[in-house]
Amino acid sequence: MTENIKLPYGKEFVDVEIPKERLNAVLVSELHHYKPEGTPAEIVKKAMANPIGTPRLSELAKGKNNVVIIASDHTRPVPSKIIIPPMLEEIRAGNPDAKITILISTGCHRETTKDELINKFGEEIVKNENIYVHDCDEKDKFVKLGILPSGGELILNKIATDADLLLAEGFIEPHFFAGFSGGRKSVLPGVASRETVLANHCSEFIAHPKTRTGIVEGNPIHEDMLFAVKKAKLAYIVNVIINSDKEAIYAVAGDAIKAHEKGCEFLSSLCKVKAVESDIVISTNGGYPLDQNIYQAVKGMTAAEVTVKKDGVIIMLAKSDYGHGGDEFFRTFNECDDIQKILDEFLARDRKQTQSDQWQSQIYIRVLQKAKVVYVSDAPDDMVKGLHLIPAKTVDEALQIAEKILDNKNATVTVIPDGVSVMVIE
Q: What is the mean pLDDT of residues 263-280?
């Protein structure tokens, strides 16, 4: 007897058949069974009608002539089509003459393309609204606002800091080193300079025991982000929580810190799952858009890391049709066979010497030191091998490879259908 499990892969799904006697667990967030009260659009509007810790947005907008909405970029499955329109409506209800800018928070990611903006917001908003895509290296667009708790300089996009009303949209999910996404991440790393992001993501902080999924208290990366929110004067957020169909099932609006905290509490109540140790753990990055590259797929690997046996095998599914996702990330591993040597170099660096993608590489090394990783993707085999992964084109092929590595055709299996939507707790 086998059990069929559907796994997201790009914009589609693939099936995996696991013998029931070998299947230890399927770790799924209760989030996907949650029955929302209303449609996604209704959920957002209800949250905006009942803001946490602030007046309604229409009230906040009165007398504010330069309004900026920080919006997520192409790498995040935020349903902006149902968030941005009511935000624009409320701003204009409070001040019909307000100048509104939508600032795309790319952090250190590549520029969001026009087609991606249309896919995100719809043609009408892209055509009629003022949209600016943040570039972390566009030095003439930045202003220094002080020193972060980490010791790095806080340097943010002037479009955000010059606003007389700064807002943000986004979504909340478990985050593998910031604890949770959403809220304060719109500012840092969202609209910060590369220098500021690097200081915040330093090796010391990434190695900290509190920089883990679902942890914010005592998390030094989170504390930097809160500092940035206060300095930037982020006044109001609308954040949603989404299910596996990328539909909003819950929303919070209001104060950037208080509303985010409430959203995190709701998410935690549904998506914590107990680790079930197995020889083989299959994970994904939840499909499109988070599985576009290998760099982002490290997130899904960290869910598997918690529940795979030491020296076991992780099978990671991520379409990766955009390749590795980070030049420095790829070079780091492609040019060195000794991952401990790479880690030692990271740990020896001062926080102000942090290099691009170092944080992802550091977490990635932690995963590779615990288990072999077989990578199911559309990426070229030589690219996958260059990142110390074992390539496979199907889950069945990956399982055969894993069984051979373990020399065990009866190896136990845990499946995590969406590795970025669960918080796997030891």
A: 96
Active site residue 109: yes
Q: Reply yes or no on domain 2-27+275-425 having CATH 3.40.50.720.
A: no
pLDDT tens readout for residues 99-146 = 999 999 999 888 999 999 999 999 999 999 999 999 999 999 999 999
Provide the pLDDT for residue 421: 87
Q: What distances in angstroms separate CA 227 from CA 61, 137, 245, 281, 303, one per listed residue?
A: 24, 22, 33, 37, 28
- Catalytic, 175? Answer yes
pLDDT at position 165, please? Answer: 98
- Whose CA is closest to 88, among 165, 192, 184, 141? 165
- Of the candidates 48, 47, 68, 44, the residue with the CA atom closest to the CA atom of residue 58: 48
Question: What pairs with residue 153 in β-bridges?
Answer: 147
74, 134, 175, 260: the active-site residue: 175
pTM over 0.90? The answer is no
Beta bridge partners of 99: 66
- Per-domain residue ranges of the chain: 2-27+275-425, 40-270
* Set 32, 33, 74, 109: catalytic member: 109
